[in-house]
Design brief:
182 residues; Rossmann fold; seven-stranded mixed beta sheet; 30% helix; 38% strand
Length: 182
């Protein structure tokens, strides 16, 4: 009897291991694109995310009213952390003697959008820019929503992630241009 219970337990453990899916993890391209020209220091502060993005699964917007998530494809870190790091790379290191502004915000959209022409990468960020040393509750110098949508090169998660990286690069260049005028 004891042998039979041990054997059943072993089969349950083996079956559980055999059914575990392989997961693929993705992150943005964290190298600088060189698209962003900044004449001041842009320091990146904390980014929050909308509820639909507060998970590791990559979001797909199938229709204007239907979303889903990839089953086995995951972000390697939180979307907010990735956007923070990518913006910091695009803005570059601080330079002594330059004015410093703080960039913070919320990631509203960061997803694949299916369209009749193929998958699109959509990034939408609500940005607040404050004077260096200002507190989060102080009135920002600028509050603006930035959006970039780019076609993926093909119908793959890799292509969508590459396009999302480029979308953040484009948004970073717009933020830098607006900040320079403040």
């Amino acid at each position: 009897m004891r042998y039979r219970i041990s054997r059943i337990a072993l089969l349950v453990v083996v079956a559980g291991c055999a059914s575990t899916p392989n997961l693929d993890f993705y992150t943005l391209d964290m190298s600088s694109s060189g698209k962003t020209k900044v004449g001041l220091n842009l320091e990146v502060d904390r980014f929050t995310v909308s509820e639909k993005l507060d998970r590791t699964q990559i979001l797909i917007q199938y229709t204007p009213t239907r979303i889903d998530y990839y089953a086995h494809e995951r972000w390697a870190m939180s979307v907010g952390d990735m956007v923070e790091q990518k913006l910091a790379v695009e803005f570059g290191p601080a330079v002594d003697g330059r004015r410093t502004l703080i960039v913070s915000g919320r990631v509203i959209a960061f997803e694949q959008v299916d369209s009749s022409s193929g998958p699109q990468a959509l990034a939408r960020l609500e940005i607040a820019i404050r004077e260096g040393g200002a507190k989060r509750f102080e009135t920002p110098l600028l509050e603006k929503t930035y959006e970039a949508s780019l076609a993926a090169d093909d119908n793959s998660v890799d292509a969508v992630v590459r396009a999302l990286s480029e979308a953040i690069e484009d948004i970073a260049a717009e933020i830098a241009a607006d900040a320079t005028g403040l």
